[in-house]
Amino acid sequence: MPYALLKMLKGEKPYLDKSNRMPKEQAKFLMKRDHMKGKYLGECLDSCRWGSQMTVMYEMSINEMIGFIQNWMQQNSENFTKLWHETKIEELYEKFELPYINHKTCPRDENHSGIVRDLGGRLRCFHKSEQKLKPSFTTYFDFFDDHSRIQRRNFSENEPHDSIPEDAWAENGELAQEYEKEWKEHLKELKQFKNAKASLSITDVCYAILSDESRILPLETIIKRLNLRPATETVYCNYDRFGPCKRVKELSESAKEEYELMGRCIGHTQPHDKVEFPFDGWDLALYAQKWHQQTPDSKSPVFEK
């Protein structure tokens, strides 16, 4: 049961007075000088959020949420370690942990086997797979892999494909000759592909993270993992999908071509400006407390490197 609800059932006020301020206005008010001084972080956070039956939402980005918590710490620099929550964690929960990654099997493929611990202390899947590719027809692309949280390279074979239209043979004159030339070139490449030997050996190691329980998690990472909202959102000009685009200069060349073809805003991807959690502000304060207490010198990192 949410702590705020428990306080309400006891007849107590679960958060600070808002004086009819909306959550976003309340957050700005609290961040002014000394407005959170001497106040519990839990009650401060719980007074500037929207709520539903299942989740709570803050009109803040992840960085703004971090800034709010840092502001509270600065206002209470002399004794904030005593003001995370009015009740000890042990009195509320038998077990309360940070959102570590912890998988019993590889999240990429449960049939993978092999484990290795990296220099940062994470347990990773060490499953190896082998590929035999044809060197002259091998292509690759780089991508960021969510399972391993590292930049990876994917290799594949690029088998020749013709790009000749289906009705090409109905053409006459120079165009027909050009299509015939392209077709002969395609057949030549296809023959080379079929005769080529797969002599290029590629060894791929999975490296998916199985556990990072031994790691010190930055506050940014903790909030990202707790946040129910995606990292980015797609927004449209004029708040609809059928109006003209007002940010054409920001579009890539291919996106501009798509916009000219469709005649309406195709959408813009940008970082999400809200965070959402499946618990109230009092619990969020406990996660901030656990983050701060990770190191003996209370210098747990704030941002990801």
Large-scale geometry: flat
The H-and-E topology, N to C, reads as HHHEEHHEEEEEHEEHEHEEH
Strand order of the largest sheet: 1-2-12
**DSSP helix fraction:** 25-40%
Distance between the termini: 36 Å
Query: What Rg, in angstroms, do the CA atoms define?
Result: 28 Å
Mean pLDDT value:
91
Please count the helical segments: 9
Number of domains: 3
Strand percent estimate: 15-25%
Largest sheet at a glance?
Answer: 3 strands, antiparallel
Overall structural class, as computed from helix and strand content, comes to alpha+beta
Number of strands: 12
Q: Low-confidence stretches at least 5 residues in length (pLDDT < 50)?
A: none
Strand and helix layout:
Layout: H1 3-9, H2 23-30, H3 41-46, E1 50-51, E2 56-58, H4 62-75, H5 89-92, E3 115-117, E4 123-125, E5 128-133, E6 138-145, E7 150-157, H6 173-195, E8 200-205, E9 209-211, H7 219-226, E10 232-235, H8 253-262, E11 268-271, E12 275-277, H9 281-292
Antiparallel strand pairs: 1-2, 2-12, 3-4, 4-9, 5-8, 6-7, 10-11
Give an account of the 3D structure.
The protein is an alpha+beta fold and 305 residues long. The chain folds into 3 domains: 146 residues, no CATH class; 97 residues, no CATH class; 40 residues, no CATH class. It contains 9 helices and 12 strands. It has a 3-stranded antiparallel sheet with strand order 1-2-12, with no helix packed on it. A 3-stranded antiparallel sheet has the order 3-4-9, with no helix packed on it. Strand 3 and strand 4 form a beta hairpin. It is flat. The mean pLDDT is 91.
